[in-house]
Design brief:
The chain contains 15 helices and 25 strands. With 554 residues, it is α/β, with parallel strands linked by helices. It has an 8-stranded mixed sheet with strand order 7-6-5-3-2-1-19-20. A 6-stranded mixed sheet has the order 8-9-10-11-12-18. Strand 10 and strand 11 form a beta hairpin.
Length: 554
């Protein structure tokens, strides 16, 4: 590699929603923008989180200088506690993003062992050969930043997640002037958020949601239960302020909502009127029309506060007829079924449920097509890389760039692992590095090729068959008839019993043969049992349950 060329290497976040992470390499040193996670698909049985595979960064660990975090959403910072255990380098981010991150780091016992450094818009850093600066952008979490990485060939701009909100709740608008100045100076490459590339027009202001809240709080005859992302402090602020104007106090349900509300209050991002907040344990002391309950569960998460209410499993909040439930979020792709199940249960419980775009209770935090055009025209980059989205989002964003006058040869729709090399006059994908997924199960990590997930998938599809055999430790001859136990195998109990009896007879014959041949040792006997039993069961049922042999020697 020519050290004077810049390399951009997406580790995660392209062709997908989540686990955003991009390495920028220059003069042999690397800075990494974002360190995000994704949430598991339905076929990832028992998996809690999905992380980017950082094998490439670990190979170059001595060259990695820092993680630069754009904002406080978990798809951009949530992998830090897991990644920093393997690659402990300084982290830079805004005050609120770092406050959310520190809470996670503390849970993992890392708070004292990592270097966490606060930055803000206008701040400039020198990290090895890189100059780094930060630009204010509006998003659905306060303190979001775009990141500008300076090289000898010009700046590389990461927009992060952004929108052009001219009436933001906190008054902090996307810094159009700084972006325009960058464009006039000349931008080498732009990596821009593609999430809403399918959405025409401009994204509405967050303040629009407040108008819907006014109407709902005024008309609701009972309690209002509002589910939103716990990080959406702007949304929480509007709900708290407008509820107070309508004579409602508020309580908080859900661990992440309680934690983020406390963090935002302590740091001054959330203003709570005197006496407006009550404990969840005290809600029965107030009339229903005097209450707002802020809850987690806008994505139908099984253990969230709203889901537990819907399934009549919440220890402190029992749904009543007359309750109004507001789902103030759009389902993340893949969560639609869970959200609809929750809504169905809420309606069955007698609640009024308000949700969906037409209700006005949610606006996106991401730029729509007209906003994307505006960003492209402000920055006028030499090279354009659409990021943060599935392939169709990247593809449509590339079309917008062509409309803005950027040539095909200057637009790169990358995949995770592609190595894009940039010079002053040319750019090309020159290599591909290993990337992928790492699964989190509790606090345990495992790679995407691991046996655990495949075993869980097999258990979900065809069940399990346990074969217990007892043999003489000296000769290997059977001393009792095999016992077979099946779970999740066949729907018909009588048919299952018939198959198990036949399988026991097959094992009798196998063990008799092994005994005559004086085959001993757990490992050999188990392998023979697994092979013979799997073949027999498939011939009989066309099912492939997981076969677990257990050999007892006496």
């Amino acid at each position: 590699m020519n050290d004077d060329r810049v390399r951009i290497i997406p580790i995660g976040g392209l062709g997908e929603i989540g686990k955003n992470m991009t390495a920028v390499e220059y003069h042999g040193k690397i800075v990494v923008v974002d360190c995000g996670l994704a949430f598991p698909r339905d076929d990832m049985f028992g998996i809690d989180l999905v992380l980017p595979d950082i094998a490439y960064l670990l190979e170059r660990r001595a060259d990695v200088l820092a993680f630069l975090i754009t904002h406080g959403h978990e798809d951009h910072f949530g992998a830090l506690p897991f990644i920093l255990k393997q690659l402990n380098v300084p982290v830079y981010g805004s005050k609120l993003a770092l406050a959310f991150a520190k809470s996670k780091l503390d849970e993992h016992g890392l708070i004292k062992s990592v270097s966490v450094n606060e930055v803000a818009e206008g701040r400039e850093l020198e990290l090895g050969p890189f100059g780094v600066s930060f630009v204010a952008v509006s998003h659905s979490v306060p303190d979001a930043l775009a990141i500008v990485i300076e090289t000898a060939h010009g700046p590389i701009v990461f927009t992060g997640d952004y929108k052009f909100d001219h009436t933001p709740i906190d008054g902090r608008i996307t810094d159009v002037n700084t972006f325009a100045q960058l464009g006039q100076r000349g931008v080498l490459a732009l990596l821009a958020d593609s999430t809403n590339a399918e959405v025409p027009g401009s994204t509405a202001s967050e303040s629009v949601v407040g108008q819907a809240f006014h109407q709902i709080f005024a008309e609701a005859e009972g309690r209002v239960i509002l589910a939103s992302f716990a990080s959406h402090i702007h949304r929480v602020q509007q709900a708290v302020r407008i509820a107070h104007l309508h004579g409602r106090k508020f309580a908080v349900a859900g661990r992440s909502m309680q934690k983020n509300v406390n963090i935002a209050r302590n740091l001054g991002y959330l203003e709570v009127p005197e006496g407006a907040m009550v404990k969840l344990s005290e809600i029965d002391e107030h009339r229903p029309d005097e209450l707002l309950i802020l809850a987690t569960g806008s994505q139908g998460e099984p253990l969230s506060a709203l889901s537990r209410m819907a399934w009549d499993d919440h220890p402190q909040v029992e749904l009543n007829e007359g309750d109004t439930v507001v789902i103030s979020a759009k389902p993340i792709p893949g969560n639609e079924v869970s959200v609809m199940e929750t809504i169905n249960r809420l309606l069955k419980a007698g609640a009024k449920v308000i949700y969906g775009e037409e209700s006005g209770v949610h606006v996106s935090g991401h730029a729509a097509q007209d906003d994307m055009r505006m960003m492209l025209n402000l920055l006028r980059p030499q090279y354009f890389i659409p990021v943060h989205g599935e392939y169709r989002h990247q593809h449509l964003h590339a079309d917008l760039a062509r409309e803005a006058g950027i040539g095909d040869e200057s637009i790169f729709i990358l995949e995770n692992g592609d190595v894009l090399e940039l010079g002053p006059d040319d750019a090309d994908v020159v290599d591909k590095v290993h990337t992928g997924m790492v699964f989190v199960d509790g606090f345990e990590l495992g790679d995407e090729e691991g046996l655990v997930l495949r075993d869980r998938q097999k258990l979900a599809e065809d069940g399990i068959l346990i074969a217990v055999v007892t043999v003489d430790v000296q000769t290997g001859e059977p001393v009792a008839r095999p016992e077979l136990v099946a779970r999740g195998f066949l729907h018909d109990d009588e048919r299952q019993q018939e198959v198990l009896e036949k399988a026991a007879a097959v094992l009798d014959d196998l063990l008799e043969t092994l005994g005559k041949e004086h085959v001993t040792g757990h490992r050999l006997i188990k392998e023979d049992i697994r092979e013979v039993l799997s073949e027999f069961v498939y011939r009989e049922t066309r099912q492939r349950p997981m076969v677990m042999p257990m050999v007892v020697e006496v």
